[in-house]
Every structure is written in structure tokens, then in C-alpha cells.
Amino acid sequence: MRLSYFKGLRWIAIPTLFISLHAFAGIEQQLANCAAIGDKLDRLICYDNLAANASNHNANRPIQAPVSKPVPAPQAPVVATAAITAEESFGKMPKEAPAQVTKLDMKVTSVSKDAYGALKIGFENGQVWKQKDNRRFKLKAGDTVYIEKGALGSFMLGKEGINTTIRVKRLD
């Protein structure tokens, strides 16, 4: 009983082996045909066609390599432009950074304190800034101060000749 099972299996396995060897030889021949193409674009198209057919599992269908044609010389220079995606530009510093204001000099028009003792400072240009930390800082109307960018999007207020700054936030 056991021998008859293997006899039937042998008659199925041997033709399957020959068919798969023939298909492999066909793909190998098609790759050789693509490699023999002189024009880069036609060769790439041939490989792309092979890959498309391999994904469709149509290995038995022969693929004909395209006939290469002479390429006419371009009359004007061709410039290839590619859109840069966010992933491609991630982590790269731009070569020319746009001009940004990093420090402003302003004249104080009013100084007041809120309920927690934080300074609320008004300037000539109409801006109002509020102190965000609890450091002591002497300031009066008529003083000229500077506000500059700090770390992590914060802003620092200071006076020339004084070696201290306070962290501030713009209100208006």
C-alpha cells in the first residue's frame, strides 16, 4: 500500500520539476537578453517588465526586449528638478537661512506687577510682555532694554551693562 502512494507521487513530482527548471531557464535567458541591451533606458524598461511579470507569476510567458532606437540630441539643456519631501529634508540645515530677527532693542513705557509679583512691561511700539520667572529685575519707564530669542522658543529680556536677564512672554 505504501509503495503505490510513492509511485503516484513520483509521476506528479518529476513533471513539476521539469516545468520549474524550464521556467527558471526562461527567466535566466530573459535576464541575459535585457543585459545585452545597449541603451540604458531600454535596458531598464526590460528589467521593469521582467519584474512586473515575476510579481504576476507569469514566468512561462516570454518577454521580448525592446529594440533600442538612437536618441536625438536635445536642443536645450534639460534640468531635472525633484520635489524635496519633508523626510528628505529632515535634519538638514538650509544653506541660506532666511533673515530672522533674533534681538530687538525697545524703550519701556510702563512697568507694573501682577498679583504674583511678575513684571508686566509695556513698550513704545505697543507690545506688552510679561515676566515668566521669579527673578528680581529692576526696571522703570524710559529704560532701553533688549529682548532676544532663548532656547526652546523662549525669550529673554535684559539691559545693556547688566549681566542678568529674565525670561519673558509676549502678551500683546
Question: Can you lay out the helices and strands and say which pair or pack?
Answer:
Layout: H1 2-35, H2 40-55, H3 86-89, E1 103-113, E2 119-123, E3 128-131, E4 144-149, E5 155-159, E6 165-170
Antiparallel strand pairs: 1-2, 1-4, 2-3, 3-6, 4-5, 5-6
- Characterize the overall form: rod-shaped
Count of discrete structural domains: 2
Which sheet architecture does the biggest sheet show?
Answer: 6 strands, antiparallel, barrel
Instruction: Give, in order, the helices and strands.
Output: HHHEEEEEE
Helix content: 25-40%
Percent strand: 15-25%
Adjacency order of strands in the biggest sheet: 1-2-3-6-5-4
Can you describe this structure?
The protein is of the alpha+beta class and 172 residues long. It folds into 2 domains: 2-69, no CATH class; 103-170, OB fold (Dihydrolipoamide Acetyltransferase, E2P). Helix content is 31%, strand content 22%. It contains 3 helices and 6 strands, in the order H-H-H-E-E-E-E-E-E. The protein has a 6-stranded antiparallel barrel with strand order 1-2-3-6-5-4. A hairpin with a 5-residue loop joins strand 5 and strand 6 (165-170). The chain is rod-shaped and about 95 Å long. The mean pLDDT is 78.
Short description:
By secondary structure, the protein is an alpha+beta fold. It has three helices and six strands.
